[in-house]
Fold:
Amino acid sequence: MSYDTPLSPRPLHHLTDIRHRVMTSRQLREHGVTSTTVNERCRPGGPWQPLLPGVYLLHSGPASGEERLHAALLYTLARTQGVPRQPGPQEDPAAPYGQAMITGLAALALHGFATAPPPAALDRIEVLVPSTRRLRPAGFVRPVRAHTVPRPRLLAGVPVAPVARAVADAVAALTQPAPVRALLAEAVRGGHCEPSQLVRELSRSRVLHRPAVQSAVDGLLAESRAAAEGRLYALVAEHALPAPLWNVELWLPGGPCLGAVDAFWPDHGVVVEIDTRAPHTEEGMHWSEPARRGERLERLGVAVVHLTPRQLAGDAGETERHAAVVRTALASSAERDPAAYLVVLPK
Structure:
């Protein structure tokens, strides 16, 4: 492999090694390299090679996974004649490429997913950009536009989308059920994100309705809920809380069912809800069914404590804090107005 980075009137010592090897046309011009020189060095058998439109690999060997990731991000800037720069003291250090970030399978590989191939093995790399950007797919780069761009994480020197968003973008490009199930399972079982976060992003990406995705999500939600219920039982027992009524339905007398709850203390007017899912609504907001049910119960004077599976799976100190919240709700029942009379039935 031969390297031939250009001599330049501008010093190159401030550039990182990867930025020596992958550069845009504009960067090369600013370092004193003319388009004629670029064309000459990119001739067949030459020391350089075009990697993407406006992006060049300054050696003749295969591009590494790291080089492909940086090239994909540079492509988003080359289309707008931008150049990556070191962020100032008040800027986000995870955003040297503007708002562009790696997403999809490449991002999951950087997050440490065993089910995601390494970037060097991927046929395409997805890059998340604002919806106002009109980038076209080119080479191995597939732009993914988003109305709301999340805050990235800086992994391996590149900005990377959060796990839930990266999973949703990866699933959107998959057609076989097996890899879909594997990615969703690793995201939840590996502790990378909560099921509710995953459902929210899958819904936002409009892939939740796909049979393979829905089936995998339903299985993971059921698994997550069963494990969370077991941890809630343990929390009540280990912290000597009064025994509640488990898994019951609450009804207004002669009226509609208010829904099923995980734990209910009728003498105190306190409910604990395990919040596992956040479906999409027509208004574009994400609001979980437990939250809607809790709002109805609170209007009737019932105190509602929401706990997520991740909170219940926390360490001893965290579970102690959640137990204290429940204990406080029970102890303060005497200070609240009495809750409305409710009919309790087995679930």
Q: What stands out?
A: The CA atoms of residues 104 and 173 lie 8 Å apart. The chain has a mean pLDDT of 85. The longest strand covers residues 257-265. The chain has twelve helices and 13 strands.
